[in-house]
Specification:
- The chain is an alpha/beta fold.
- It has 2 domains: 156 residues, Rossmann fold (3-Layer(aba) Sandwich), CATH 3.40.50.1970; 185 residues, Dehydroquinate synthase-like - alpha domain (Dehydroquinate synthase-like, alpha domain, Up-down Bundle), CATH 1.20.1090.10.
- Helix content is 50%, strand content 17%.
- It has a 6-stranded parallel beta sheet, with helices on both faces.
- Strand 6 and strand 7 form a beta hairpin.
- The longest helix is centred in the last third of the chain and has 19 residues.
- The protein is globular and about 60 Å long.
């Protein structure tokens, strides 16, 4: 399992490590936002020289064209196999930067320093890297852990409130699928910018699960609670230029609302627990209407989910708060029932 360090410990370790290894080059991958806002902070905290590669921000650019641009810039900078890649950014940067590193010259070591809440509690940890392909989420990629994940909540101060709220979607996920005490805390939690303690609890949950199942053959699948429908909804909204694009955590929150209903129907989640969780998520996150036409397109994306087996939809559901189960087969008709339940909830 990757070493995960917090705040100043990250830079102390990184400075000593780069001095010890004497890399040919250190390359920092940023996007257009973190280049302006976060890179100056990072530069003031490290003692080694580096070059940087800037990519366009956002899920819409998480594709092979962007990765090819990174590869070309690595070639232009004459980066050899004794080099280090540091990804400084949110989940798109750590996913793509890690994938580019692992595939350039058959693999360079990389380090993730996430600058978003979503990255800190989820995307940067566990070694999943990759890109979207033909509008489908994370279809191309590899799993190999970074040398280090450095978490410094100082970068959260650079985020718009909505971006940090998106990251809270992943925080709520941990409460639902793994930590009943965290769930209880979140019921009365009003902060958009969470405490170090909340971030560390989420990190420890993910580290513990990944240490048991790096390649997602079993228990790691529980981390996908809310993501089966969430990814399909997010992918579909990326194709709707006339609609306000959903952030990842917002789409996952909608996915969790529907997964709670399916958990009641399929795995015995008590009705009052289901309802309480749904109302909590509705009170915290954007919940747009989903028309019949929207639902039809989302189902199409759902059929491409990586967890599906033998053309059947596979979901992560709950038996109770903190008790997730995986490989639960759900029919298309049951998904439509979940949509119907979601639409009714909007009028509650």
């Amino acid at each position: 399992m990757s070493n995960v360090l917090f705040r100043g410990n990250t830079y102390q370790y990184l400075n000593k490590y780069c001095k010890k290894i004497a890399f040919s080059k250190v390359i920092v991958v940023v996007d257009e936002n973190t280049s302006k806002i976060c890179l100056p902070v990072f530069e003031n905290l490290v003692t080694f020289d580096f070059d940087y590669i800037e990519i366009k921000p956002g899920e819409a650019y998480k594709n092979m064209i962007s990765v090819q641009n990174i590869w070309q810039k690595l070639i232009d900078l004459e980066v050899d196999r004794n080099s280090l890649i540091i990804n400084l950014g949110g989940g798109v940067v750590t996913d793509m930067g890690g994938f580019a590193a692992l595939t350039y010259k058959r693999g360079l070591p990389y380090i993730n320093i996430p600058t978003t809440l979503l990255g800190m509690v989820d995307a940067a940890i566990g070694g999943k890297t990759g890109v979207d392909f033909n509008g489908l989420k994370n279809q191309i990629g590899v799993i190999q852990e970074p040398l280090l994940v450095g978490i410094d909540p100082v970068y959260l101060k650079t985020l718009p409130q909505r971006e940090c709220l998106s990251g809270m979607g992943e925080v709520y996920k941990y409460g639902f699928m793994a930590d009943a005490k965290l769930y209880q805390t979140l019921q009365s939690y009003k902060d958009t910018y969470p405490s170090d303690e909340v971030i560390k609890r989420c990190v420890n949950i993910k580290k513990n699960i990944v240490s048991q199942d790096l390649t997602e053959q079993g228990v790691r699948k529980t981390l996908n609670f809310g993501h089966t429908l969430g990814h399909a909804i997010e992918s579909y909204f990326l194709t709707k230029p006339e609609a306000q694009q959903l952030r990842h955590g917002e789409a996952v929150a909608i996915g969790m609302i529907m997964a709670l209903y399916l958990s009641h129907v399929k795995t015995g989640l008590p009705e009052e627990v289901c309802r309480e969780g749904q109302l909590l998520l509705k009170s915290r996150f954007s919940t747009p209407q989903l028309s019949d036409e929207d639902q039809k397109h989302i189902i199409t994306y759902l059929k491409h989910d990586k967890k599906n087996r033998h053309d059947t939809l596979q979901f992560v559901l709950l038996k109770n708060i903190g008790q997730a189960v995986w490989n639960i087969t759900v029919t298309t008709d049951e998904v439509y029932q979940a949509f119907e339940n979601y639409q009714r909830l909007l009028y509650t």
